[in-house]
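Recall that a protein's primary structure is simply its ordered list of amino acids. Everything else, from secondary elements to tertiary packing, is in principle encoded there. The following example makes that idea concrete.
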Amino acid sequence: MHRLGGFFSKGRNIGLKVSATAINDCEDEAIRAGQLVETQRLSGPMRDSWKSGNFWVMYAAQNNFAFDSIYWQKIDQRFFGPTQSSDPDNAWKERLHLLTSEEKQYVDECVKLKLKEMDTRPLGWDPDEYTRAYESEWME
């Protein structure tokens, strides 16, 4: 599983606080200039979303490529409490008891289907002339 480093590392957390402060300062200036009213501020809700963890729920919902990493590293423990494992790759094993036997069977069927699709998945696009030209240069 991909680790949430980079943009979401602890060092970035400081950057996000600085950004929220900068946004707040810009909002103050816009309010003084009459371009914004107090109820239009975004910095407060942004800060609240980050502190509560709602940011992660929204980010995961909007960016499916990162869903697994975000869920197991940020969302799961918020709703279901801490896990014994410090490795997010194994956290799911501690949650299996939350599923009914029917739900476990459904998950097994989904996994089997996805594994089968991996072997037979068709290419979802036909290369255009630019892709073919690039491909021929790259292959030479």
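The chain has a mean pLDDT of 83. The chain has one domain: 6-139.
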